[in-house]
Amino acid sequence: MSEERAEPQAQSAAAPSPFPPIADYAFLSNCHTGALVAPDGSIDWLCVPRFDSPSVFGALLDRQAGGFRLGPFGVTVPNTRTYEPGTNTLVTTWNTGGGWVVVRDALTMGPRIGPDRVTPSTRPPSDNGADHMLVRTVQCIDGQVEIELECEPVFDYGRTSVQWTLLDGDNRVADAAAGDLKLRLHSSMHLGIEGGSVRGRHLLTVGEELYCSLSWAEELDSPQTLDEANARMAATTRFWRTWLGHARIPDHRWRYPIMRSALVIKGLTYMPTGATVAALTTSLPETPGGERNWDYRYCWMRDSTFTLEALHWLNLDWEANEFMEFVADLEPNQDGGLQIMYGIDGRRDLTESTRDDLSGYAGARPVRIGNGAYDQRQNDVFGAVLGSILLHTRRSQRLPRRLWPVVESQAECAARVWRDPDQGIWEARGAPQHYVSSKLMGWVALDRAARLAEIRGAPDLTKKWQAIADEIRADILEHGLTKDGVLRQHYGTDSLDASTLLAAILGFLPGSDPRLRKSVLAVADGLDEHGFVLRYRTEETDDGLSGKEGTFLICSFWLVSALTIVGETQRARDLMERLLRASSSLGLYAEEFDVATGRHLGNFPQAFSHLALIEAASRIIYTERLGEFT
């Protein structure tokens, strides 16, 4: 007698696990790399010296892949965690039976002294730069608390154990080495080697303070005293606050989330080239325990329009200019088109491999290094690039000479391929389709190119490119609408896709057009999951993968913008408030939100989510301000 095989039960995002919830991590950055700090005070993710380097602490993806804890001995749950106002410096307060301590963590930054030989710059160097070190301080503010330090790096994503060497007779300095990479741990605590880790313990009394630093700087430069460590911290605070002082943050009830999003976007920017990584991490799962795990430590061209829009709206024109210079430097494909993503140094080859020796976050495998979608055909890339160039040109009141060849090549590529099917904005690994969002971005490409040609003083190209834009628009309106007048996912289905909300955001149809209104409300109702938005229904979409995913935060923010555009302002406000309540306790967002458990899913923190937050907030704020004059 044969037995029916039961379908495997979906894993809950809140299932018991030794891994902290994704949203419980704090984000540190020095604009060259970043770190994630778990609630118990452990650095569970750090790649040095760059965002895309192999990890030295990888406990985020395997609990045996290295970590660095500094905190009270025997206590793992802090009282409070917050950022020092206006910075990416983490401040954690701990209470034990004996007293209270405050821990500060930062990837420090300060005035630039000489050229950076650790991560050389291709842009004009700024007055400030990364120290290439992690600095941690602990201050006892009441009673006495025993502090524990345990540093166990494992290089190359948990593959290579290190050899520790104590350097001074006082046992306060130790080097970890394996191959060509070396780290230096310096502390005011006495240190001891235990296998692959260095440990220290000290009873801290009220008014007393200690520090430790981990350096990968040139000649492993490190603070030698507590005063030097605090000076590094103070310089880091000045850097972030001075930078934020240049931003235009509106005096509005959403001031803090906009400010935090700006700090996240800056923190995900690779200062040497101006590129922005999509997220700090690789392989945090979109489906709990599943296979939807990707490496997001690269720069996506489709993010460019949203990046430029957010930076210019915040008055951060220097960062916007640096990003456009990065785009101008990129090497195109043989057909002249740009890839959908590049390395933060501009490299083209992002070949994907898996690390099957790692358990993955909460059992989600495989862990991927590289991204196999880099050579996919995605026809939306041309619109993203040309949209960003037009935004930048309007803001700066000039079209840089070196960008005009990019305009010509991307416009001609878009004109050549817009009729072809592709993998779409979501990088589906199923069969190519005529995705409506790709057609929309094709229209954006030729429409923006025509406007740029007018600015350039090239009337023949203006006429040529505008005619193609009009042809694409007509094709979408003929084939991309259902019989009810709703924008569909692709020409071969009536299924919905949240990416069609871009028709509102990018001005394909005016807010008063009934087809746009129907399309926006169809997404709001048809892709709703407990008040948040799915990018599409996985059961209706051939994306080449198994498993259900969470709601996409960027899609929910897009819906806020689209609802505002079609006049549903209060419904947009309601969704915006719901989204703001869904942020982590530190104001951070991953890629997805699991409505059943309230857990964040996917890579973290996610630049696209924070960019979309700024765009959505700006739409509502603009509408509210306009209403004050009517």
Keywords:
three-stranded antiparallel β-sheet, 21% strand, 15-stranded antiparallel β-sheet, alpha+beta, globular, single chain, disordered N terminus, 630 residues, 27 strands
Description:
The protein is an alpha+beta fold and 630 residues long. The strands form 6 sheets. The protein has a 15-stranded antiparallel β-sheet that branches. Strands 25-26-27 form a 3-stranded antiparallel β-sheet. The radius of gyration is 25 Å and the shape is globular.
User: What portion of residues is helical?
Assistant: 25-40%
Can you tell me the overall shape?
globular
Mean pLDDT: 94
Give the count of helical stretches.
Answer: 14
The end-to-end span amounts to: 76 Å
Radius of gyration: 25 Å
Largest sheet: 15 strands, antiparallel
Q: Using DSSP, what is the number of strands?
A: 27
Q: Which structural class is indicated by helix and strand composition?
A: alpha+beta
Low-confidence stretches: 1-8
Strand coverage percent = 15-25%
Itemize the secondary structure elements and their pairings.
Blueprint: E1 26-29, E2 34-37, E3 42-47, E4 55-57, E5 67-72, E6 80-83, E7 90-95, E8 99-111, E9 128-152, H1 155-158, E10 160-161, E11 163-166, E12 173-178, E13 181-187, E14 192-194, E15 197-205, E16 209-215, H2 226-245, H3 255-267, E17 269-270, E18 275-276, E19 299-300, H4 303-313, H5 317-329, E20 341-342, E21 353-354, E22 368-369, H6 381-396, H7 404-417, H8 436-456, H9 459-479, H10 502-505, H11 514-526, E23 528-529, E24 532-533, E25 551-552, H12 553-565, H13 569-581, E26 592-594, E27 599-601, H14 607-627
Antiparallel strand pairs: 1-2, 2-3, 3-4, 3-5, 5-9, 6-7, 7-8, 8-9, 9-15, 9-16, 11-12, 12-13, 13-16, 14-15, 17-18, 19-20, 21-22, 23-24, 25-26, 26-27
Helix pairs in contact: 3-14, 4-5, 4-6, 4-14, 5-6, 6-7, 6-8, 7-8, 8-9, 12-13, 12-14, 13-14
